[in-house]
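Feature request, filed as a ticket because there's no other form

It would be nice if the structure record came with a short human-readable summary line next to the tokens. Right now we just get the raw output. Example of a typical job, pasted below so the devs can see what we mean:
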Amino acid sequence: MVITMEKAIKLIKNRSDIGAGTRGSDMGIDAIEIAAINQNSDYFNQFEFEDVKTHNESIYDKNRSTSAKRIEHVVEQCTRVSNAVKKNLTANFFPIVLSGDHSSALGTISGIKAVYPEQTLGVIWIDAHADLHSPYTSPSGNIHGMPLSAAIADDNLSCQNNEVPAETQQHWEDMKNIGCDGAKILAENLVYFGVRDTEEAEDKQIEKLKIRNYMVAEVRYRGLEKCVTEALSKLSHCDRLYISFDVDSMDCDMISYGTGTPVPKGFDQYEIITIINQIIESKKVVCIEFVEVNPLLDTKGNKMAETAFEVLEAITSTLILPVE
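Raw output as currently delivered:
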């Protein structure tokens, strides 16, 4: 039997880096496009695209909150991303979201949930980091470490170590209610691949909420296909799936340091491609996101963007080519 993709792909370009601690991921999308040009690929001419308006100049504003830096602008940006994802899903597109920092994922998840409010959404988070902090627990105040806390609407107050001003608390509540009110996903419907750099507050959340994390060593020892099959089985009751791919899930020593928070002992790009492709074959994926390419930090030219494009091109082929 031949199965073809029913939805046309739409590229959503979100050049925002205000949720990160380091400037530069706003240039990641352009770096990926340059990688494509240098490889004589017409990838970015093949698909319709949409540019999301950004607020990157807010990086120069004096931070009013140290527990959630620039949160009022991150709320605004995530709302824009949510609206773009919602509009394109409603128009029967398959959105591939190319973003700067990972705070954008909250917007993407919110947009998906707004379109399918009565359906169960599963999230596969391919990342070196758990991104499970809240303003109450974050050691840095950088919101790219908080999107999943907002998505599951759990502040982890038992691990609170920050005093959060009332204004910041209100912005955080606004963030949790983007797209539709309340939690977008249940913690039991979240699966990690490659998470290996966490703080104590996140470790306690992962343990309390029983979030499954397929670490790199386990995936290699037990077998990649077996682990992905197991993850899909865990999420089998989910109606829709979203894949979030942070390039820092890859090994910085092997690939590149061209990302905001590089971590060694990660996956290689072929493992990432295999993981994502196997999930795509479940036919439940409605959106994929790429984040955190930072060419300003790349010590190997444009290596991280080139590798990200290699992954992007490979998984897009799986999305659009007939499957026998």
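Something like this underneath would help us a lot:
The chain has eleven helices and eight strands.
The longest helix spans residues 71-90.
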